[in-house]
Amino acid sequence: MDSFFNFIKEFPFLKMEATGNDYIYFDFTTKNFHPNIINTQTIPLICDRRYGIGSDGIVVIANGKEYVRMYMWNSDGSYSKMCGNALRSIAFYWYKKTNQKEFFVETEVGIHQAIILKDSGYRGNVKIQMGMPKFEPVEIPFKGSERSNQVYQFYDPNILPYRGYVVSMGNPHCVFIVDDPDKISLEVIGPKIENHFLFPERTNVEFIKINSDGSIYQRTWERGAGETLACGSGACAVHVVSVLEKKLPTKNTIHLRGGDLILEWDRDVWLTGNVSMLYLGSLTDDLFKKLLNINL
Asked: Fewer CB atoms inside 10 Å of the end CB: C or N, the chain?
């Protein structure tokens, strides 16, 4: 029996959620890591909510050039350069590991300051610097040419009668302002926009309603994951669009199905919200080997 449970110490993972956006986290900071060692074909199995652990994706915490580094894959196995909720979760994990309350986390799109605002055991409140929004089509990337103020627009009347605002927060987002996001058939509309030819690297899609108090309600179809309870980088894109196009305050609350996020925008966009550590587990020897293209 002891030999059967030896894998528990060898291949641990931590399940965390941030505003309902849940990921499986592996700490590779004591090992050499390169993203090429991940077998992305195994990720959908591990993320499956019936036959696997269940999550919106997997995240690897590794050593960067100067700071701790995030690598992230969506539940379909596609790689993502940025995820605001995963970034906040890594920050809380790293605080628990090092006892530092302010530090930096590296991603493929930059270096992000993290500030731990509250620690309630396995639950915390984290503020993260998400960087500057990008509006140029080549940076998003986006092949459209229509624009409104600073923001380029997506429009395909064969899909929707609305125009979407296109912004990058390290990954592409298309934001639609509608009367009631809950009346949008997201599982039908989302994939059509995500995979539209105007988005050569696909896109995340947000449908939002501006409430009477100025706050925002948001639903998100995430590229490579489908509808999620929250999207941190999407909330940042939504906030930027609301400030530029609707003159809303530079600090605002966004309500998502998984909870609330606080957004602030001066030069950089800052994202604040709750993080929870849910449970610690381990992959079996066989499944862990399938996750890797090489043996450690």
From this structure: N
pTM of this structure: 0.92
What is the 3-class SS of 61-106, one letter each residue? Answer: EEECCCCEEEEEEECCCCEECCCHHHHHHHHHHHHHHHCCCEEEEE
Sort strands 251-256 and 57-63 into parallel, antiparallel or unpaired. Answer: unpaired
* 172-177 vs 204-210, strand pairing mode: parallel
| 3-state secondary structure at position 146 | coil
Q: Are 144 and 137 in contact (CB under 8 A)?
A: yes
Cα Dmax for the chain: 66
Helix (H) or strand (E) segment spanning residue 191: helix 186-194
Where along the chain do the CATH 3.10.310.10 domains lie?
Answer: 4-130+276-291, 147-266
Query: Does 4-130+276-291 carry CATH code 3.30.460.80?
Result: no
Catalytic residue among 47, 174, 231, 236: 231
Higher-confidence residue: 149 or 18? 18
Tell me, yes or no, if 83 is annotated catalytic: yes
Residue pLDDT, tens place only, 82-115: 999 999 999 999 999 999 999 999 999 999 999 9
Look at residue 127 and give its three-state secondary structure.
strand
Set 47, 83, 174, 236: catalytic member: 83
Annotated active-site residue 47? The verdict is no
Residue with structure tokens 């501006």? Answer: 210
Superfamily of the domain at 147-266: Diaminopimelate Epimerase; Chain A, domain 1 (3.10.310.10)
Q: Whole-angstrom Cα distance, residue 30 to residue 84?
A: 24
Separation of alpha carbons 57 and 21, rounded Å? 9
Give the three-state DSSP class for 276. strand
